[in-house]
Amino acid sequence: MRIAFYAPLKSPNHPVVSGDRQMARMLVKALEYAGHSVELASELRFYLRQPEPKSFDALKIEAADEAARLTKLWHRDGKPDLWFTYHPYYKAPDLIGPELASAFAVPYVTAEASYSRRRNAGLWADSQALVARAIEQAALNICFTQRDRQGLTDAIPDATFGMLSPFIDTAAFREMPSRGCPTRLVTVAMMRPGDKVESYRMLAQALGSIGHLPWTMSVIGDGPARDEVEAQFAGLPADRIEWLGAIEPAAVPDVLYSGGIYVWPGYGEAYGVAYLEAQAAGLPVVAQDIAGVPEVVRDGQTGFLTPPGDVAAFASAMERLLASTDERTIMAAEARRFVLEERSLGGAAARLAELLRKIPVS
After folding, report:
1. CATH value at residue 42
2. Which of 46, 92, 19 is nearest to 269 (CA)?
3. Same domain flag for 128 and 174
4. Given pLDDT bands bounded at 50, 70 and 90, which one contains residue 119?
């Protein structure tokens, strides 16, 4: 099929690294791997940081212009067989695809759409109504987590849903180099206010209680809250923490391979691509049993998931893996097997092909 792909929150070509951009790229790869021809329908970023009517109106005008451009293009060059929108939600609704898909009788598909009733107030209620209409219209809404599917099903019960587990391109992890330092902790996370800072704060507190153990840590990440993040770790020995800043995605596997355990509390994580990458590199994970994290980490098998907000439990889980070579080794092997065998690009492509085959295409 010829597929028009659109990610209103962040284009696959966006210059800023993030999990959203990475998954958008992975979906394009998976669709191509499955034999489809994928074209980026639009680079327009429809993102409302705050519920401001003027910004909303301005973005709607831009979206209308994009729809007009694509209408002319499709009349000239032919319409696609399917429209595929990644991650529409209340701050980033799709104001291009549903209208075009309806006008040209093209099946409309979403992936990782989300809906939260607690956002139904003021302008957010208006933007969520747009998301809801798109989900209702869709021939298929692909969910990455049971949590998201349940939220959508509760709000829009008559919509059509399918499941696709979060995945990564495992090509960079197929070759296993010599094992890194088993007591080296690794974290990969942007430094943004909100959930990211909260996770860094919890991590710093937990590390403070296991100072008697011989751990060191590598941190990959940067962002506007870097000073605030580093301040949380000020009470820890500076020579134990290596601040690597933002690095190229291609360099991340080498850092993961240099470590022994991946640690990240995971407040607000939709699921966390970084957890999958860490496990592919053979790192057991310590995270919280929170948000979408259980979709990508198997508690007691590929790592430990601790109760939300329990700093002592998080520290205890890190201590357990640092102290037990046998358990760490067993979990490392299972983590690597889990991702390479069950969460690979090839597996995702096969699942996507299975899901899309069920959609009638004119």
Report:
1. 3.40.50.2000
2. 19
3. no
4. confident
